[in-house]
Please model this.
Amino acid sequence: MKTYLYIAKLRMQTMLAYRMEVLTYTIMQALIMLSVGFFWKAAYGGTQVAHGVTGNSMITYTVISALMGSLYYMGVEDRISDAVKTGSIATDMIKPVNLFGMYLAEDMGNLVICFFRSTLPIFIVALAIFGLPVPASPQHLLLFVPSFALGYGINWTFSALFAMIAFTAIDLGPAFSVKYHFVNMLSGAMIPIWFFPAWLRTAVNCLPFVYMFQTPLGIYIGKYDISESIRALGIQAVWLTVLTVIVIIAQKRIEKRVLVQGG
Amino acid sequence: MKKLRHYLSVALLSARLSIQSCFEYPAAFIGWLISNPIQFLVAFATIRFVVMEFNDLAGWDYKQLAFLYGVSILSHGLSVIFFSKTWWMGYQIIHGELDRLRLRPMNTLFQFLLGELNIFGITDLIPGIILFIYGCYAVDFRWTLYNTLCMICTVIGATFLRGGIYLILGSLTFWSKSPMHISGFMQEIFNRTNMYPLTMYPRIVQIIFTFVLPVSWVCFYPATEFLGKDSMITLPYGMPFITLAIGILLFAISCRVFRAGFTQYESAGS
Model:
């Protein structure tokens, strides 16, 4: 455990080096949040309630989504694909720690830095423009926390799995961009999927993406009542277990057939 | 005249080279050909689903928004082809890669912009053209002589407007000596001010993006005229010509900034 804490600390120090990049990224995320917030204001216009959700709840949804997004920094993706491309995967693998344990520890370090670097500033901007994003009830807030943690886990394991394609393809190129846009749309991060046409909604519900963003967000704004929320937490836990098992199996297979390019 | 012909032939030759070098790695090109349109499709689907629910967005229906988005993405695609190298020029400056521009007996900015076109921009342009045709069809755009002229002015003006701002931002590295990551940021601003009607934002935001940083002229204002929509400024006609004027003016300013910056260029080793 101490080893992993040390890795997390190292990672935080590295992250602090990229000051300018983080700053512009944060400002960009804050602007997108504001834009989407005003988009909902204009869309609702005179309408009070759509799909059981008020315009104000939708703005809360947008703000919390931006805050979650700023914490969902999946460093594991770049980490694996870079390590495979440059061949440094070899040195990562001879370290006396679990490969994915190390990457997870690094992302925990990222999480702490992201909280201070991105989440807090975005929260302050949201507070100034849209006011405090209030949860539906204290119980909902209480359920939101584990749901967010499970959402992080699902997102992380999925990203790790996706990045593992690099072991066979070496250079993923635009694949990450495709994945980003798909996840953005199908997870409900931009618009909740209850606005989608019925056929698409049914399909999306069978995929893990909604459990990254929409489930915690829906709980926060009270779209789901308490019993529905607890059931949703259960589904999240199932998805996380399934994805974790796949990651472990994939890791075992990859360690046997890794190809070090070193170019 | 002879000089102009020389420049033209060099531009054509380097365009051919750019195309050839782009297709050297067809897999990468196909990858972007799939990934870039998806980005616009997702953004567009988002608008469509929400607007179908609420009927309109700040008084714009779904078809009008499709038209607005189509014009915007068309000029985006063109600006990617001609100006996207300014997004990475910060790195070129600090790595001293602009040295060779100085060695050739030609205008440096000409060499910089047209010496190597970003043919990968076609993957942005194709969805742009498709959305543009669809948008024009959806709002039943009338291709009269005057309207066609206005549309050409809008698209050319918008491309120069985007390019001018990218070039100014890129040139700042000549002074700052460290690359700044603001191109993605600027693209997002262009997108957000031209994908949705500007009138949905608070008045102060509208004023900023109309007069201070005139990015909503890219296509929001011309579109208001084409579709007869109200905005903060309502003119009976002439919006597309203002877009063209702002585009050319910003591009002229950016040329000056680039030239002034280039005198500060001190090659690698910083």
Notes: Residues 2-257 of chain A form one domain. Chain A has a mean pLDDT of 86. The longest helix of chain A spans residues 99-130. The CA atoms of residues 43 and 186 of chain A lie 20 Å apart.
